[in-house]
Specification:
Radius of gyration: 19 Å
Number of domains: 3
Strand order of the largest sheet: 1-9-10-16-15-14-11-12-13
Shape: globular
Strand content: 25-35%
Number of helices: 12
Number of strands: 16
CATH architecture of the largest domain: 2-Layer Sandwich
Helix content: 25-40%
Largest sheet: 9 strands, mixed
Distance between the termini: 48 Å
Order of helices and strands: HHHEEHEHEEEEHEHEEHEHEHEEEHEH
Amino acid sequence: MRKKVFILIFALLFLTSCTFIQQVRNEITGKSVNEELAFQSIRLDTGKIDVYFCPRDNCEEKLINLVGSSEKINCAFYELNLLNLIDSFKDKGYSIVVDNDNYEEISGMKNVIKDDRTALMHNKFCIFDNRIISTGSFNPTVNDNTKNNNNLVIISSEDLAENYNDEFNSFLKNRFGNDEKVKYPKTILNNEILIENYFCPEDNCEQHVYDVISKAEKRIYFMAFSFTSDKLGDLIIEKSKDVEIKGIFDNTQATTEYSEYNKMKEANLNVIIDKNPNFMHHKVFIVDDIVITGSYNPTSSGNKENDENILVIYDISTADKFLEEFEYVWNLK
């Protein structure tokens, strides 16, 4: 049974021993943990984080296993065309929201709703039995599973599941785009891992990414399919005076008119164009030992128009996994 922060004394006693969380909370908010707890509820939850990287880890298989072991599944996808995954939904209680550009691919499935806006339903998340969520850059498509570089993050957390279900239910009510702000933006998992969770456009994902990057002390690594945010690009250039910068841009997007790639190269930053002949589809920042991932590309449309989500994960083990993927993509021939 999950634990909630209803008793301030318990939370203070617990957090007193968690110096790492204290430090990052103070860096982000400008307040100590104790000061912040006096004004807002930080949730305590139990669970685990699993991280997979496509195509090396067969992300489709991981989702099929989750569908197979679940009874109720809600998913919001930009696109879905993996036939084995589609087949696994049979005889399950599921609902799927998909972008209108890709509705025809799954129009034969029941309980499918399309987002008819010009802006994108760009999410790639599912909620399984109100207790597990999956998200990341991975679209459940043939190309994303077998060709494109992607990540899939699976977390057991009832708090995060509630956040994602709230967002999903707003889609069922035809409330796309701006909606209510996330209910539980900050959760501490297993007494040690701080996770922040936001949805765009209502929670201003760009600003949350900016806040984390601005506090970097040793490194800012990123893998970006599309990166056109001047606000984040200029900040990274400024931070390059004090911390190590390494960045990977997708080869199809790096030289577009508004990409941050040329500006960073002119500033002598250590950034490269990926060598995957298909897509380098990650949307990842690794800031010190903090990982930011999800569906959000650092672009204006990603922040202000499309439906997106991000996780900010304060966990050395998770950061190490993403660093290994970063080096793998960096060294592709």
